[in-house]
Input
Amino acid sequence: MGKVAEAQIYNKQMQDLIRKLLAELGENPSREGLLDTPKRVEKALTFLTSGYRADIDDVLNGALFTVDYSEMVIVRDIDFYSLCEHHLLPFFGKCHVAYIPSTKVIGLSKIPRVVDVFARRLQVQERLTNQIAETISDKIAPLGVAVVVEATHLCMSMRGVEKQNSFAVTSAMLGAFRDSARTRMEFLELIKLRSSIPTLSEHAAVGMACVGD
Ligand SMILES: [Zn+2]
Output
């Protein structure tokens, strides 16, 4: 009961802020078309940041299996949508995940869920990439993990800033994918990127994808 009341107060506060924002933007928040906008924006933003309230162990609950298998597992072309933390504007694209199991695998349908947990937060593309890789590494201790994220940043393309660079590719390579060029190439061949990866370091360079102005 207390929790419901709390959530309603929280929602109302966010809606008030959005009403104020509309006024600051030069709008009349009371005109017909905008009457329900604060409620809708509050609902949309709460969904788009639901990753803060998700528990990765709950997501993976019952989906970790012990196996005698050590071939590369790949889940490619996972659609994701996130919000850039510098501008609160969307960046979105495809995520490709691979790992080589040691003793455990993750149910295949759970990999896109893991991506969503981190995408539905305020993010930078490099951190999103690393968090997905590190989570898989932590949870099943595989021989290696590779994550590649290709994304378009509306904060750059919509504002007309460096339009040609609004598309960015980031990667995180751990274990066998970092140590073995052959393993890495096998993965990259299997995902056939739209563009080449600028660097193949263990952790992507921070700040490359989205300019902070
Ligand atoms: Zn941005």
